[in-house]
Design brief:
Radius of gyration of chain B: 25 Å
Strand order of the largest sheet of chain A: 1-2
Low-confidence stretches of chain A: none
Number of strands of chain A: 2
CATH superfamily of the largest domain in chain B: Periplasmic binding protein-like II
Order of helices and strands of chain A: HHHEEHHHHHHHHHHH
Helix content of chain A: over 70%
CATH topology of the largest domain in chain B: D-Maltodextrin-Binding Protein, domain 2
Strand content of chain B: 15-25%
Number of strands of chain B: 28
Oligomer: heterodimer
Strand content of chain A: under 5%
Family (chain B): Belongs to the bacterial solute-binding protein 5 family.
Radius of gyration of chain A: 24 Å
Organism (chain B): Deinococcus aetherius
Number of domains of chain B: 2
Helix content of chain B: 25-40%
Largest interface: A-B, 50 and 57 residues
CATH architecture of the largest domain in chain B: 3-Layer(aba) Sandwich
Mean pLDDT of chain B: 88
Shape of chain B: globular
Distance between the termini of chain B: 28 Å
InterPro entries (chain B): Peptide/Ni-bd, SBP_5, SBP_5_dom
Mean pLDDT of chain A: 85
Largest sheet of chain A: 2 strands, antiparallel
Structural class of chain A: mainly alpha
Distance between the termini of chain A: 6 Å
Low-confidence stretches of chain B: 1-24
Keywords (chain B): Plasmid, Signal, Transport
Structural class of chain B: alpha+beta
Protein name (chain B): Solute-binding protein family 5 domain-containing protein
Shape of chain A: globular
Amino acid sequence: MLTYTLRRLLGMIPTLLVISAVCFTVIKLQPGSFTDQYLEDPRFTRETAAAISRQLGLDQPAIVQYGRWVWGVITRFDFGYSFLQNRPVVSVIGDLLGWTVFISLITLLFTWIIAVPLGLYTAFNRHGFAASVANFLGYVGLAIPDFLAALLLVALVLQFGGTNVGGLFSPDYIDAPWSWARVLDLLNHLWIPVLAIGLEGVAGLMRQMRASTLDVLSQDYIRTARAKGLPQNRVIWHHAVRNAINPLITLAGLSLPTLISGTIIISIVLNLPTIGPLLYDSLVNKDQYTALTLLMLSAFLLLVGNLLADLALAWADPRVRYG
Amino acid sequence: MLDRRTLALVTLALVGGALSGTAQAAPKKVTGYGNLGITDGKPGGTYTLVLGDSPQSLNYYGVIDNNLGLIAQQLFDGLVEFNYATYKVEPALAESWTVSPDGKTYTFKLRQGAKWSDGQPVTADDVVFTYEQIIMNPEARAGDAANFKLDGKQVEVKKVNPSTVQFVLPRPSPAFLLQMRSFVMPKHKLVKFSQEGGAKAADINNAWPSNVSPSEVVGTGPFKLASYTPGQKVTLTKNPNYWKVDGKGTQLPYLNQLEFLIIRDPQAQVAQFLAGNVDQLNITGAQFPDLKGREVAGAPFKVMRSTALFGSPPFVAYNFDAKDAALAKVFGDVRFRRAMQSALNRERIIDTVYNGLAGLPGHGVAPVNKEWYANTTKQLGAFDLKAAGAALDALGLKDTNGDGIREISRGKNLEFDLTYATDSSVYPAIATIIQNDFAKAGVKVNLKGILAKNLLSTGQSGDWEMILHAFGDQPDPELRKPIWQPGGALYYWHRSLQPAQDGGTPNMARMAPWERQVYTIFNDAATTTDRSKRKALYTRWQLLFAQNLPVTPLAKPENIGAISNKYGNYIYNLGVIPGYNPVPLIYQK
């Protein structure tokens, strides 16, 4: 198991290198340059554009720029300089990482807590009225994009005279020290993004859970267990659910990269301080090292998520073993 | 009384009289705006505004960033500033100034007793440092080195004594005073990032990154930096050393605190405004009806319209150097451009795209700019498709095969691309209206959408046929010379005029006679110190512009702002215009 993990980890290095080269090429293939965005400003002249390009090393051939970046990452763990923010990429991402992870974890937790039991319920009570309602709501949740759900919630809050229409805090609490009042204010804002992002996930996950439970329920070993006269509860929890949850473990692993790209639009709409909009901005403005680092982070998370999922599967499913 | 004397002094100085002013008491009294609804306020309160994105740095000269500009405006001042009502230049950090009779030497006397927000005195050294080490430093990303080189020669900055600074110009430049709106920076905080302090020229860009300690950012503006929470909020507090007082002598600003919430999405900004978390918001014509409706229904805010001097009037331009030679020939023909002007339905654009919140444009000068505007309304013509058709017929551009589209030559339709920005609230609608009306005149237009931030670089690349774009109006046409002078860096609809090297002489041989005239007018006006002669020159330019239409201006949008009823003394906040900052007058009722 340990050798397997090590082998997988080592295998990531060439994969990541190839991904970085591809990403950098794609970023470079975009038309225009970083300095284009400034041209509309009367303070900007062509000399300034040339000076900025020189200062940032953009006058060098692309391969040199890429080589320097890779070398910096390998030797100094330096992920380059954010043109847009005038500071190292690592510190820019670091500013937002905390809230991004926090919001993602809360949403993930919310999704699972709602979706797994609901999926099981709809599977066991396939033809019940409540299950049909849950299924219907699931479809609706799937059909409504998260940003639209967020906008609807915001409109609703506004309609009832609320002031928590975006961001994570009321203006007064943004830079206040932690206190119970601040926590309450956070919760008062947090439910909108959690509900809006989570709802879409709930629907998908619920369908997945339902399908795999139904799948498992028709298996021979369930019928055997039932025939043996095992109590219903034991059949469900010990045999059915444990097997039905396998595909979800893989799904959970795959959901790690959504930390970065999953919340772009909703973060813009709800003004959340997460990494998503940073990725969008850096791509649009050709802030190449920030974009590259974020794409790499995303790729890395995907690989790690896969690995974790495989390990978790091995732990959960006795049939899966790695030599 | 004091105010009038200062004004008289300034006026004299502007005319060129070498008058040395007697020192006045230090603070500047802000009075005389009764017609703008300004009254004496009371101290206290917090005012919350929005920023479209996080500031990229806190060093105004290190990054070109409008969000930083909005903050910097509250933290720093220039030597001179605009009058809120007339846009005339008046004293700011400089208490008074004189211009030598030859128009080449400007001497500024600094405001007595002016202090930085950390208590250090503002001296001539700070001004010399700001201009020499930062603004004229070609490596400063948001510096302005180009404007301090006239005819290839450097402007000199000299300290005369601790409170007097002199600028010596290689040649007269009457618009030079406007450059003095540039923010003055504290030498004692920034010298370590400058060449004078032993750093490299480019190091100035690294001063004051966005995670700088707030106490490092020192200015003379109404507010000082208190804190910055990444991606969420910038907080400023009142600068106790600010140098302005109101009519009663109460120190400005009235507000204790100024907050900027960082909200990227325009809809989210409106939501926060409606929820009462934001106190003032600049909005577009498209958002006007909804907010105005709520105001009328009793919402606790007002939506104010104001005719604009600054701000970008959209225009259409035809590429005189289009790749298709036949098109280039037609585009270069003034009769074609005039014919197409009659097919531009300005009224409909103003009514439907701007919800009526726009007026007719000037030609390079905003109609509200009384100082320079020449009335060219007549030359704008009227929307008349028949007349357009007849004019095109007269040019020989006729529909011979009966498909409803005129032919530019045998078997080839008069058809071209209109490049416009898809991510703008007004361009797509304007482009569609143009496409529609032109089609009725037998001219086929294909819409080609790009991102707004690429409009100018696309324009300058020459890879377009017709373009929908906008350039801002400024108080003095001299400031827009690179746009409107043929061969200028931004005169991109006739790129073949541009000089082989920056700063060289443009290709005069390829200029149309009227372009040559405009070229000379701009050169003359740049050095003419006599105000009435300059006015005559710029009037002539506007008429030439209106008749020959290097570009065809479409409309002049109004400024619209929404403000909570809790506050008084609101004047439309123009945005990032150095030397125009009405926020110190705002007070909480």
